Amino acid sequence: MLDLSKSNFEVLPKWIGNLKHLRKLNISNRPNIKKLPNSICELQKLQTLDFDGCDQIEELPKDMRHVVNLRFLSLTTKQRDLRGHGL
Questions:
Q1: Which of 1, 2, 74, 75 registers the highest number of CB atoms within 10 A of its CB?
Q2: What residues does the Disease resistance R13L4/SHOC-2-like LRR domain cover (predicted)?
Q3: Could you report the average pLDDT of every consecutive run of 10 residues in the chain (87 residues)?
Q4: Would you say residue 83 lies in a domain?
Q5: Could you tell me the residue range of the domain that residue 63 belongs to?
């Protein structure tokens, strides 16, 4: 588990995609986060992704369909249409 809910990131670092065995990522309640890197889609073992309360995120990465083990997704986003992201 990686809990970044108390971090000050506005953009998550690209190296997050290197955490191949990560199963849970919590970046909830961080209204300063504006973008998720596409490298997050390389987390094929990720089961839980929580970014509820990150209401400044305008768009999800386009390759979210590659996160094949995702079981729980909690989000707040400005994006109106999630089609085309594999969700």
A1: 75
A2: 2-78
A3: 88 90 94 87 95 84 90 76 56
A4: no
A5: 2-75
